[in-house]
Amino acid sequence: MGSENYPLRNSGIYHSLPSFDPSINGLKAMVTGANGISGFHTVRALLDSPQRWEKIYSVSRRPPPPDMMNLLTEEQRGKVEHIASDFLKSPEEIAEAMKKARVTKVDRKRHTNHSSLEMSYKWNLVQ
């Protein structure tokens, strides 16, 4: 089935996002910098397709503030799990934070800055 059957959509600050076959579901995503503006909007855009995402790992030094999380419904908050991690730390320390949170699989990653992207690739090598 081609993408022509699934129109583009807008979500908050994001435009022309793809739509996906609804049979693709139960995925896990990781968003770094999730308590920043673009990171949190990425989480919200993912939550626009709640059946698609089983879990969204929100990775940042500190959890998103309550005022920010209160913008989500209770069901949406249930899909978001914060992982405290500093991407300026060593890949081993980042990997330890992921293990502690029992992250075993991530289907998609979204990086909101260049340094977290570099560290993510290093973390993948440590796994």
Overview of the molecule:
By secondary structure, this protein is an alpha/beta fold. The protein has helices at 37-47, 66-69, 74-79, 91-100, 114-126; strands at 9-11, 14-17, 27-32, 53-60, 80-84, 108-110. The strands form 2 sheets. It has a 4-stranded parallel β-sheet. The protein has a two-stranded antiparallel ribbon with strand order 1-2. Mean pLDDT is 79; it is low at 114-127.
Distance between the termini: 34 Å
Helical content band: 25-40%
- The figure for the number of domains is 1
CATH architectural category: 3-Layer(aba) Sandwich
Give the SSE order as H and E letters: EEEHEHHEHEH
Spell out the blueprint of helices and strands.
Elements: E1 9-11, E2 14-17, E3 27-32, H1 37-47, E4 53-60, H2 66-69, H3 74-79, E5 80-84, H4 91-100, E6 108-110, H5 114-126
Parallel strand pairs: 3-4, 3-6, 4-5
Antiparallel strand pairs: 1-2
Q: What structural keywords apply?
A:
disordered C terminus, 127 residues, alpha/beta, 6 strands, two-stranded antiparallel ribbon, Rossmann fold
